[in-house]
Amino acid sequence: MYKYILVVDDDINLAYAIQSYISSSERKVFIVDNSAAAIKLLGLYNFQLVISDIMMPNHNGYELLSYLRLDSNLSSIPFIFLTAKGLTVDRVKGYNLGCNVYLTKPFHPSELLSIVNNLLYLFKDPSQILIKNERKDVIIQNVDLTSREYSILNLLVKGHTNREMAYLCHMSVRNVEKYVSRLLSKTGTRNRTELAQLVLANSLKANDGTRTRE
């Protein structure tokens, strides 16, 4: 399964060079040249890392980082500033906003690769979370669910966040949110907690033999 990395830099030649440095058979590296395009992609794919310049037209890297850290679905994504702004005040601002690493240009490719490897290791993928008592299905009586809804419901009951479910199901966070809303509507529940409790109650009934196996 790919690890998704987003590179944001208006110097396209450098962006392609970064892509070549950090690419591997297990990584898919996307390149955009502005923050607006980055935000759009962040809503479509589940990225494990963002590498961004600071000085860019319209919205700079600081603004991009602030956007991520204020979004509950994106706030945990590791973030690297790769920039020519090397003053202490710039570094302090970057770290205060929540960047994980502040690397100045020029940089050595091996140093960047080492940083990338370390961040991807430290911030492990949701797919590596061990799930005990794995079940192939969940039970809700008198509710007709699609196979995708069953998949989302299984993960929701196990306590996965929308971002984790998006990664595991290879879909966007927005689509996961739509499926969760659909599940709430179909089951007449008001939130994730009530939905999980409903599934648990139905499962207990089935285990007690009160549910007829069709």
TrEMBL record:
Origin species: Porolithon onkodes
GO molecular function, one term: phosphorelay sensor kinase activity
Cited InterPro entries: CheY-like_superfamily, Sig_transdc_resp-reg_C-effctor, Sig_transdc_resp-reg_receiver, Tscrpt_reg_LuxR_C, WH-like_DNA-bd_sf
Modification type 4-aspartylphosphate: residues: D53
Protein name as catalogued: Uncharacterized protein
Any GO BP annotation: regulation of DNA-templated transcription
PROSITE patterns: HTH_LUXR_2 (PS50043), RESPONSE_REGULATORY (PS50110)
Lineage: Eukaryota, Rhodophyta, Florideophyceae, Corallinophycidae, Corallinales
Keywords: DNA-binding, Phosphoprotein, Plastid
Every HTH luxR-type domain range: 138-203
Response regulatory domain span: 4-120
